[in-house]
Amino acid sequence: MRALVAAFALVAAAVGITLAVTSGGSRKLVPGAGNRSGTYDPLGYAQARAAQLQREAAAGEAHIVYAKSPGGVIATARRTAHFRPLIDRLARPAGIDPNALEGMVFLESAGRPDVIAGNDPADASGLTQILAETGRNLLGMHVNLAASRRLTKKIARATTAKRVRKLEAARRRVDARFDPRKAIAGTVRYLTIAKRTLGRDDLAVTSYHMGIGNLQNVLRDYSGGSDTKQLSYVRVYFDSTPLRHRAAYSLLSRFGDDSSNYYWKVLSAEQIMRLYRANLPRLERLSRLQNARASAEEVLHPEGSTTEFADPAAIASAVAAGRLVNLPNDPARYGFRLDPLLGQFAARLHRRRALYRHLRPEALGLLVYLATGTREIGGKATPLSVTSAVRDEQYQRLVAAANIEATHGYSLHTTGFTFDIRRAYSSHREALAFQFMLDRLQALNMIAWVREPEAIHVTVSSAARVLEPLIQSVR
Hints:
- The protein is an alpha/beta fold and about 475 residues long.
- It has helices at about 1-15, 50-60, 60-70, 75-80, 85-90, 100-110, 130-135, 145-155, 160-175, 180-200, 200-210, 210-225, 235-240, 245-255, 260-280, 280-290, 295-300, 310-320, 330-335, 360-380, 395-400, 430-445; strands at about 30, 40, 325, 335-340, 360, 385-390, 420, 445-450, 455-460.
- It is globular and about 75 Å long.
- The two termini are about 40 Å apart.
């Protein structure tokens, strides 16, 4: 991955494609390069937006927290809340944020004190998922691994609940990771060590999944060897790209276990626990929206909250009023092209294909940003191919009859906020560049996306209106 990131940078430096945009002045639009040295990135990191970026990252990465919580987020929150008094009692005297620690319990074990990441208790185990080696060697916990393994096998073979409870109690005595109080105390010790080493609460939490040494390497690469004590994780994460602070980005992108997004998921879990206590109906609604689709698209645009186009006449009216804008077919300028089949069912509704080649202005602005970033990072490449844009409900029914992947119910395509990009790339480098752009825009809570067999399905947030200036020359 490091070699590929370096290749990204060399190609982007050697090949420049300037877009005609109105907000960057004479500067060149280069997503991921920041706002220095003649480049312009409307979504680039800025210290003044750090708190907002942190909130957006928690929201943008929340879908997997909702989708993967055992029994759903309500059940997981209920289990996790049971341990809050213990968390408060152990965290506060040590100067550890109990909300963060509770979020970690939610994320690590879903509030289940006997869970194991696999079948072998040598792996992450217990309420806070501590490795046996870490528990013994770093945290000073009593872990008799041989006895823990024997008891774990017996628990798996036990046939009655009473027998299971007896064996689990025995395992807690030989392996402290399965004792909730000792597990939480061990995690408090870890966070105390990490905070002392790294200097910040956010970095301490991040290191719980990434490792203190790994995070130190990221910080050193970002700072170029300068003092790292004042670096926040939100800055390091959002200011590191294949084009900027490349060494730090390379390390972050190499963590295949999603360590780079762990902190955002903890923040998502914290928000879930706040809602569980203060606004359960809203949490229940969010859970329904998050689990309605394979992405968070209905969270961005819940049914009934955004105008849907019922028929071709409704689309034509929106086009005339400027609520929908034309998709340009100018690959050299914008980095994407229109697939020849886009709007293929139009004739069956006695309309021209051009009617279905429109998007909301903010969605087109984001498409321009996405395609530009993919090309700037990935180098000379085949333009991204747009296969679907706005539809009306009549058109959607025709699509659903022909494509088993298409929904028969509420479709975000009928709002004009969604487009599809064909999964066809000229090189592995371009594919990685496109993936970076998708991941970064999701972390900014600008999009929700899902991988389909033939295309990447992207739904754009209304917040992408900040990108509308990128398409002024198109309108």
